[in-house]
Specification:
Number of strands: 10
CATH architecture of the largest domain: Alpha-Beta Complex
Radius of gyration: 19 Å
Structural class: alpha+beta
Helix content: 10-25%
CATH class of the largest domain: Alpha Beta
Number of helices: 4
Distance between the termini: 44 Å
């Protein structure tokens, strides 16, 4: 049986679906690496147009090396922000199987095989415009089986960054899934993040 918090959320979701808003028409405007759609929405007899961005769902994991007692993050160039970003391991959901996908992503990006996997949270990244949902996990590793660094055929150039708990608690982060993961970690350890506020230009 799912925990009470999950039950309450699903009840909240089902109750709030009972509204007067309906999608009358859906048109694909662009389909490439991502998909962009135009929706004709009706509410209380009035119709209006909204846009919807579809990038697919994703998986992410806060990774802990139990042998070195360090947390493993990845750093890679993100073209929408024009620079590198420090993040948890992450990737696009495959075969509608979050656990299988995140195990693969951890090995591809860090080179480690997963010893233990624990679910943290599922959340929408920007539900006002985007359909993306992230499945977030905590993973423990101890054995490296590959070099990592991402997949060359997917044009990935991933660097790994290993940090102690004290270093992790002092990070200045700008990536939402990573912030959520570290807030979960801090709450579990009974700590608070030392630099919780970041302002973006």
């Amino acid at each position: 049986m799912p925990p009470p918090s999950v039950v309450r959320y699903k009840h909240f979701w089902s109750e709030n679906r009972r509204n007067n808003m309906k999608i009358k028409k859906e048109e694909t405007v662009y389909e490439g690496f991502y998909t962009f759609k135009r929706l004709l929405v009706e509410e209380k007899g009035e119709t209006f147009v909204r846009e919807q961005f579809e990038s697919g769902n994703g998986v992410a994991a806060l990774v802990y090396d139990t042998q070195r007692e360090e947390y493993i993050f990845v750093k890679q160039y993100r073209y929408p922000i024009g620079g590198e970003l420090l993040e948890t391991v992450a990737g696009v959901l495959e075969d509608d199987d979050p656990e299988k996908t995140i195990r693969q992503e951890i090995e591809q990006e860090t080179g480690y095989t997963v010893d233990k996997l624990e679910h943290i949270w599922d959340f929408y990244t920007s539900p006002g415009a985007c359909t993306e949902k992230i499945y977030l996990f905590y993973a423990e590793v101890s054995r490296k089986v590959d070099e990592g660094g991402g997949l060359e055929e997917e044009h990935e150039e991933v660097k790994t960054v290993s940090l102690s708990l004290e270093q992790v608690l002092q990070l200045n982060l700008a990536d939402a899934k990573t912030i959520i993961g570290l807030q979960w970690l801090a709450a579990r350890k009974g700590f608070t993040l030392k630099s919780p506020e970041v302002r973006l230009d």
